[in-house]
Design goal:
The protein contains 7 helices and 6 strands. By secondary structure, it is α/β, with parallel strands linked by helices. A 6-stranded parallel sheet has the order 3-2-1-4-5-6, with helices on one face. Strand 2, helix 5 (about 130-140) and strand 3 (about 145-150) form a beta-alpha-beta unit. Helix 1 packs across helix 3.
Amino acid sequence: MLSVKAFDAILFDLNGTLAEGHDRFGPDEDYHRAYRRLGGAGLSPAALQDRIDQILARLLPRYRNGPEDPFPTLRDFVPDAEHLPAAELELLIETIAAHEIGQIPADRVALLRTLSGHHRLGLVSDLWAPANQYRDYLSALGLDEVFGSMVFSCEHGAVKPARRLFEHALAELDVDPARTLFVGDDLARDIAGAAACGLRTAWIGDPAVANAADRVLRDVLELAG
C-alpha cells in the first residue's frame, strides 16, 4: 500500500476531498440568504436566482468541455455585467463565492495539522469565484499556517487539469514531483492532472471503479494509517 511516509509533500484538492457541503447550487438553494448577509438588498430572491442560473448556464459547459487553460473569470460569465452597478456585481459574485465554500470537519483539520509536522502541505483547488471568503474560512481554522501553498484556479486563469496549477504549488513548496502525493476526488481533473505532472496520486472514491490512481481511499482520513 502506498504510504505517506514515501513522500516529502502532499497536495490536496479542497471541495469533495477535504471539505463537505460545497458547491451549493440548484433550484432549492436560498441564494438570497447569503446575499443579504453580505449586505445585498437591491435584488429580489427571484431576480437573484435568475441571474445565478444564467451565470451557471454559461459557466458549466465551458468548465466541463474546456479548454482548461486559459479559463475566464467569473465576471466574464455574468450577463450584461457592464450594465450592473459595480457594487451589485460584486455582491452577486460574492454570493456565488459563499456557495462554493464547504466545511472541513474537525477530524480532517486535526489530520492536516498532524501531517504538517513531517510533510510540506499544499492545496490545488478549482474555484470559480474569488477565493477571499474561502481563505478567510481556512484562516479561521488555522489552516493558513498548515498549507505552504494554496493555489486557487480563480487566481491563475486556469482550471484543473491545467499543468501550471500543479507546477505552481510544487514551485512554492520547492519539492520534487516524484516525492509529492496528490489527493483528490476527481479522476480527470485531480488524478490525471497530477499524474501528468509526475506526482503520485490517491483518489477519494470507490475501489470498485476502474481508475489510474496509485491508491484509492474511501476518506482522506485513511492517510493517517
